[in-house]
Amino acid sequence: MHRADFKPDFPTETISEGKVKVVVPKLKAYRNMPCDYAPSKAPVFYNPVMELNRDLAVLVLQGYQKLVSRELRICEPLTASGLRGIRFAAEVEGTEKVVMGDINERAFKLAEHNIAFNNLTGKVEVKNKEANYLLSSYSAPHKRFDCVDIDPFGSPVHFLDSAVRALRDGGLLAVTATDMAPLCGVHPRACIRKYGGKPLRAEYCHELAVRLVAGGLATTAAKYDMGISVIFAHQAEHYARVYATIKHGARHADESLKNMGYILHCFKCFNRETVRGLYPLRINEECSECGSKLNLGGPMWVGKLFDPQFCGLMRDDVSHRRLRLGKRIEKMLALAESEADAPVSYFVIDKLCDAMSLPVPSVKEVAQAVKHKGFEAYLTIFHTRGIKSELPVSEMKEIVRMLASIANRS
Ligand SMILES: C[S@@+](CC[C@H](N)C(=O)[O-])C[C@H]1O[C@@H](n2cnc3c(N)ncnc32)[C@H](O)[C@@H]1O
Ligand SMILES: [Zn+2]
What's the gap in Å between 174 CA and the centre of ligand 1? Predict the structure, then answer.
């Protein structure tokens, strides 16, 4: 049902995503110059590129609902057009209620219209409130949500405290960070300020971005005697995304902090080492492979990023849904499931070959050769040309050299 009195004062269009149809700003009207980023220029934010992010959010919430077997109360306090929260209500079976919010009055009105447009009045409500204010009003023990989805402009850190406080014991928190420049080491001081960890401008910075966000989440939750378990994470386009369940109790917080640690990276030979613990007794700053000075990244989350059973549950679900990006998502989930036990960081084969002026072999060939040496080799969700392995970098280079000489001979 349309609200007859809904008359936006800006150009709009109706789009469909997942199972819903919503009215969003007409982005074409806000792209006057090629460099214009239309989603942010429009009076209400809408980014079609985030469909993947929203699809995965639906799948994670559905997986979580199946695991906990109870009706979900979900909060999306930075909703813009309402698309994400409306999708939760329409597509996640077992959703009891979705509370959405936005500080922007035009977004609030558009979201209100979209709720009615999808016949979800009652099941979904939207408030024209500041996100921390909204979340705080649900922080009392029996008012808390099962799931909170934080999808802001830039960094989510401004909302993490109120988000964890508005989650029930065992609840699920989803967090997007679009401040990739700090997280990938372009602005290291901003990253240290926001996430409490130093980034590294290494070839595996996309994974580190996710780990820095998860680290910020773990230390925020620990302040309130809560521990986190990361169940799924990914990085795409301009953002990092982390999904974690939260358990109340100082013991859980202490256990969770054991997953914090540091990465030591050698920019000369590509060697990297992981040191676990927030306060490790000794950090060796000399590269064990080439003797150069190692660069320190962290503290950040060096624990698991994927729960393989949970990823499997999501993968079973994708095939039953008609998602435009279904095939891509299936591949992502298969990778996530298979790399659950992989070490932190990956080698980017092209980068190794570039440094050694060698032709680039296929990732599969390198993975086979690594296995031949008796080591595990994992492809990764974070990079199409990445390989995770405990194999020392010198042996990885040997493999690349050997494959290049075979290619030269044939
Ligand atoms: C990136 S957009 C959200 C996109 C949306 N989640 C989606 O999937 O389409 C961020 C939204 O947060 C709103 N916002 C920014 N700061 C806020 C705050 N402090 N409280 C509430 N809303 C806020 C903005 O108005 C904007 O609509
Ligand atoms: Zn080195």
Answer: 14
Give the DSSP H/E element, type plus range, for residue 360.
none
Residue nearest to atom 26 of ligand 1 (CA): 80
- Is pTM beyond 0.90 here? yes
Residue 1 pLDDT grade (very low, low, confident, very high; cuts 50, 70, 90): very low
Burial per residue of 290-308, b for 16 or more beta-carbon CB atoms within 10 angstroms, e otherwise: eeeebbebbbbbbbbbbbe
Q: Which of 17, 40, 45, 55 to mutate to test the pocket of ligand 1 (most atoms within 8 A of CB)?
A: 45
409: Cβ–Cβ under 8 A, 6 or more apart, which residues? none
Q: Considering only 211-215, 284-288, 328-332, which range has the smallest mean pLDDT? A: 284-288
**What DSSP line would sit under 316-346, residue for residue?**
HHHTTS--TTHHHHHHHHHHHHHTTTPPSS-
Q: Are 255 and 278 in contact (CB under 8 A)?
A: no
At 118, the pLDDT band (50, 70, 90 cuts) reads very high
Mutate to test the pocket of ligand 1, among 49, 153, 160, 161 (most ligand atoms within 8 A of CB): 153
Q: What is the dihedral of CA 400, 402, 405, 410, to 10 degrees?
A: -100
Give the max Cα distance, the chain.
74
Please, are residues 400 and 365 in contact by the beta-carbon 8 Å criterion? no
Please report how many Cα atoms fall inside a 13 Å half-sphere around the Cα of residue 402, on the Cβ side.
Answer: 13
pLDDT for 37: 73
Q: What is the pLDDT of residue 41?
A: 83
Question: Cα–Cα distance between 380 and 363 in angstroms, integer?
Answer: 11
As a whole number of angstroms, the distance between CA 111 and CA 76 comes to 12
Count the alpha carbons within 13 Å of 175 in the hemisphere toward its beta carbon: 34
